[in-house]
Amino acid sequence: MKKILPVLSVLFLTLASGFAQNNIYYSRDAKLQIIGSYQKELMIAKTMALNIVLDYETAEILLRFPLSSLNTNVDTINEILKFNSTEVIFKGKLGMDYINTQIQRPQTFKVEGLLTIKGSRTAIDGNGELHHVDDVGEVSCLLGLVFPLDMKALNIDLDLADLEGEFEVIITQAVLHVDKN
């Protein structure tokens, strides 16, 4: 009996940690687009290196990508970003207590949090939508987010003085999977 108790304790802890991990959903290489103005011309920056982690129990979200992964329609910006090792990190919370997986219609929400670039932290907020997908293998949901972003308010030095005014950050159809690690 004394030998069985430790084995049952380890088994219980392993099962309990497995349940907790099922509440974490992730996406690697999701699409992010930034639309704005550079020298009074339309500028579009894109990356497919966005990583997303979403906790269904707390509705907390973590977004991150390297600045060097952005590719724009402006050669000058591409040259500056190409060798930039800065990581962009957004840590925030969806405007709900938890994510209800029983709701089949799209869930719309506000999202707010801190955007960190080069040590500078800026509070930002936006809107999002979550679509659940059932019985299709490993896919759990599709996530879309939109953030308005004022480049001057970010208070960061990227050697890009000609970035002007308001930008819009768009994350489209990020496919989130259950974290099995």
Molecular structure report:
With 181 residues, the protein is mainly beta. It has one domain (24-178): Lipocalin (Beta Barrel). 14% of the residues lie in helices and 55% in strands. The protein has two helices and nine strands. An eight-stranded antiparallel beta barrel has the order 1-2-3-5-6-7-8-9. Strand 1 (24-38) and strand 2 form a beta hairpin. The longest helix is centred in the first third of the chain and has 18 residues, at 4-21. It is elongated.
Task: Detail the topology: elements first, then pairings.
Elements lengths: L3 H18 L2 E15 L2 E15 L4 E7 L4 E2 L2 H8 L4 E8 L12 E11 L2 E13 L6 E12 L12 E16 L3
Antiparallel strand pairs: 1-2, 1-9, 2-3, 2-4, 3-5, 5-6, 6-7, 7-8, 8-9
Number of helices: 2
Shape: elongated
Mean pLDDT figure: 80
Low-confidence stretches: 1-20
CATH class: Mainly Beta
- What gap, in angstroms, lies between the N and C termini? 32 Å
- In which range does the helix fraction lie? 10-25%
Q: How would you write the strand order of the largest sheet?
A: 1-2-3-5-6-7-8-9
How many domains would you count in the coordinates? 1
CATH topology, by name, is Lipocalin
CATH architecture term = Beta Barrel
> Going by CATH, what is the homologous superfamily?
Lipid/polyisoprenoid-binding, YceI-like
Strand percentage:
over 45%
Structural class, by secondary structure, is: mainly beta
The secondary-structure element order is HEEEEHEEEEE
